[in-house]
From TrEMBL:
Protein name: Mitochondrial escape protein 2
Mitochondrial escape protein 2 C-terminal domain: residues covered: 338-695
Lineage: Eukaryota, Fungi, Fungi incertae sedis, Mucoromycota, Mucoromycotina
GO cellular component, one term: mitochondrial inner membrane
Chief localisation class: mitochondrion
Keywords associated with the record: Membrane, Mitochondrion, Mitochondrion inner membrane, mRNA processing, RNA-binding, Transit peptide, Transmembrane, Transmembrane helix
Localization per Swiss-Prot or TrEMBL: Mitochondrion inner membrane
Length: 698
């Protein structure tokens, strides 16, 4: 150590001289002296970058585009590292935090870097510039819209909100919080880097008044331009004026809508015509399909052999045989062989005229028709008292349209002073239903014929096919039989329309319905579309139908009361046991074979009332009704009678002497003087029965 000290004792002077020389150079060249033993400490700075076009925008609560694309933390980190080249950026660039902005379609990246306080803004802008160059060079685009990802330096304080009612719009409301508002030029320089601007407006307008502007409305050309500007400049200060930026809900004005609203005389009829066209084009084929399905029983499981077999092997085995027999037995009135065969013969011909089945109530008219058309496809057993649409299978039907049309008529009349006539009356709706049914029946005949022909071909035996192939010829007899089979097939394919309870009530309310049904039935007959059978208890039905189909005679069947033996059979079947009452045959003979009285008798006998007492009770009730309606004993009905009590009493005395009276002799008696109006009125009131034969009254 002493030697080393002696060795360095003299160089201390050089060292000093060297330092002095260095100091002289330092002052001369103004350069700091590098000291390898000293390291300069640069402070760490933080900043934020906004990455646009990372997620799809969410424009409403029903926007589901973000559900299609990934929104996980791993996806966001990979997207950020793909966009920001961390290893290539200077100043010790480090990503600190990533905040997703899914509603705005972007993300906020917090990063740190080394820089002095005076140069931190320039360094941050340089880093963002390098990121932008990297994105353009690598062509980094979003997979959902194939647009380039953009990066901006955040200058303000982003408002990280998740308010559900606030969604991005291209309009921004820039509020000024300070003494001095920001002018348009400054706003343009601040906002233009984020995208194209459509308009900038100050409110209130400083040129129109003395008050300074409190906010500005900035309209961008795209929504993403507005989202980038809001996330980067919210909270930024310009000359001590803070900028609060929020999305402004856009008030869109539709020129077409304004024109339509301002011209109701043109638009309302046009909309009505468009609605009618859509209804005709869309719903009419659907209605025809449902009508055809109801006629052909397409959706009736009873038409399919598999269902019948399954029901026979399962459900029918659980039911007692007596109940099955009782549920399937037909009415005794359906055993009228003569009238049934006559009706079937008429149905086997081409439809040329109406088939009318008349008779008193309870005479078995409906049972007769059902027995005659038992082999037909239609199995509708509902009554005509139901709605016409449901009866015909007309679906869909919009009953509320008539109410809306009435309201539209009122509105148009109040606004324009003219009637639009949009409302459709029930009569026109019934006419539309009947026309749709007619079209369905017309279109159904070829398809039904083809289906029957295919079924018949399948029923041919293999032996017959082989025989035809071997012989390769047919005799004349076979050809004639084939032609007869084709004619028979054509007759079987003709539908049968049954209108039950026709003209059951002659009132002004139902008069239009009866008239429309008759005209519609005449249309079916004239075009050979279907057979039409009218079932009515009203004897004046002939005159009403003659107006719809003039010049043609009708095929008419008039039913009377059933014979006593049929009535007795009906009573025994209804009571379900052997009846041991000696007065029962006399009561049935006195009551006659009308179903209504026989049903009342059955009900009373089921209540353990003997036949004689039940008969006397029925007679007493009928006497009261005859006095009330026939002689006008009821004061409220007295002024409504179309006949006099003397006229009715004359008929009662004649019928007491003999069971029937000649119609013409009665009409020309002194009490009537050739006027049959009272007789027709009594017939409608069901006080008397008029028998018709060959179109004339007996």
């Amino acid at each position: 150590m002493l030697c080393r000290a002696r060795y360095h004792s003299k160089p201390q002077y050089y060292k000093y001289r060297s330092i002095q020389t260095t100091r002289i150079l330092h002052y001369a060249e103004s350069l700091p002296t590098p000291n390898p033993l000293t390291k300069t400490i640069v402070p760490e700075q933080t900043a934020q970058i906004y990455l646009d076009n990372v997620f799809p925008l969410r424009l409403s609560v029903w926007d589901i585009r973000q559900l299609v694309f990934k929104n996980s933390k791993r996806f966001l980190e990979s997207k950020v590292h793909q966009t920001i080249p961390t290893n290539e950026l200077p100043h010790d660039f480090t990503v600190k935090q990533i905040l997703p902005r899914t509603k705005d379609g972007g993300a906020i990246v917090h990063f740190s870097y080394k820089s002095t306080d005076t140069a931190k803004l320039e360094v941050a802008e340089d880093i963002v510039k390098k990121i932008q160059d990297h994105v353009k060079k690598e062509r980094i685009v979003a997979p959902f819209n194939f647009r380039q990802v953009r990066a901006f330096l955040i200058k303000g304080q982003p408002f990280l909100e998740d308010i559900l009612a606030h969604y991005p719009t291209p309009r921004l409301r820039v509020e000024f919080q300070g003494e001095k508002p920001v002018n348009v030029e400054s706003l343009y320089r601040l906002l233009r880097p984020y995208g194209n601007i459509f308009d900038i407006s100050l409110y209130p307008n400083p040129s129109a008044g003395k008050d300074p502007a409190r906010y500005a409305i900035v309209q961008f050309t795209r929504i993403r331009f507005a989202t980038s500007a809001r996330n980067c400049l919210h909270g930024y200060s310009v000359d001590n004026t803070r900028l609060n930026i929020v999305y402004e809900r856009q008030m869109r004005t539709n020129v077409v809508k304004d024109w339509l609203v301002s011209h109701p005389r043109i638009t309302i009829p046009l909309l009505a015509a468009i609605f009618a066209g859509i209804t005709y084009a869309v719903f009419d084929p659907i209605r025809i399909f449902f009508v055809t399905s109801k006629v052909t029983q397409r959706f009736n499981p009873q038409e399919y052999a598999f269902y019948r077999w399954l029901r026979k092997e399962t459900w029918d085995r659980l039911i007692q045989p007596d109940s099955i027999q009782q549920s399937t037995q037909s009415s005794p009135w359906a055993d009228d062989f003569e009238h049934t065969e006559k009706l079937r013969a008429w149905l086997a011909e081409s439809p040329e005229t109406f088939i009318v089945v008349t008779g008193n109530k309870g005479s078995g008219k409906s049972a007769l028709v059902k027995a005659a058309i038992r082999d037909k496809s239609a199995r509708n057993q509902s009554e005509m008292t139901k709605t016409l649409a449901k009866e015909a299978g007309y679906f869909p039907i919009f009953t509320w349209v008539s109410s809306i049309s009435g309201v539209m008529d009122t509105v148009v009349a109040a606004t324009t002073g003219q009637k639009a006539n949009f409302a459709s009356s029930p009569d026109s709706k019934m006419k539309d239903i009947l026309e749709t049914v007619a079209v369905a029946l017309r279109d159904m005949i070829p398809s039904e014929k083809e289906a029957r022909l295919q079924t018949k071909k399948k029923q041919q035996t293999k032996w017959k096919k082989v025989k035809n192939l071997v012989l390769n010829k047919k005799s004349n007899t076979a050809r004639e039989n084939e032609e007869e089979d084709e004619d028979e097939l054509d007759q079987k394919c003709i539908p049968v329309v049954v209108i039950d309870n026709y003209m059951y009530r002659e009132t002004s309310k139902n008069a239009i319905l009866w008239e429309q049904l008759a005209e519609w039935a005449a249309l079916l007959i004239e075009n050979s579309i279907a057979h039409v059978i009218f079932i009515s208890s009203n004897a004046s039905v002939m005159k009403a139908l003659a107006k719809a189909l003039p010049g043609k005679s009708f095929s008419n069947i008039t039913l009377s009361d059933a014979p006593p033996e049929v009535a007795m059979s009906f009573i025994k079947k209804q009571l379900g046991e052997e009846v041991d009452d000696p007065k029962l045959p006399e009561a049935i003979s006195a009551l006659g074979g009308r179903l209504t009285e026989l049903e009342v008798l059955v009900q009373k006998m089921k209540m353990n009332i003997d036949a004689q007492s039940a008969f006397e009770d029925i007679i007493t009730r009928n006497l009261i009704e005859i006095r009330k309606y026939g002689f006008g004993d009821s004061s409220s009905e007295n002024h409504q009678l179309e006949w006099t009590p003397i006229q009715f009493w004359a008929i009662v005395k004649l019928l007491a002497e003999k069971p029937s009276i000649n119609y013409d002799e009665l009409k020309w008696q002194n009490v009537f003087n050739g006027d049959d109006t009272p007789l027709r009125a009594m017939e409608r009131a069901e006080l008397i029965s008029v028998v018709h034969k060959d179109g004339s009254d007996l």
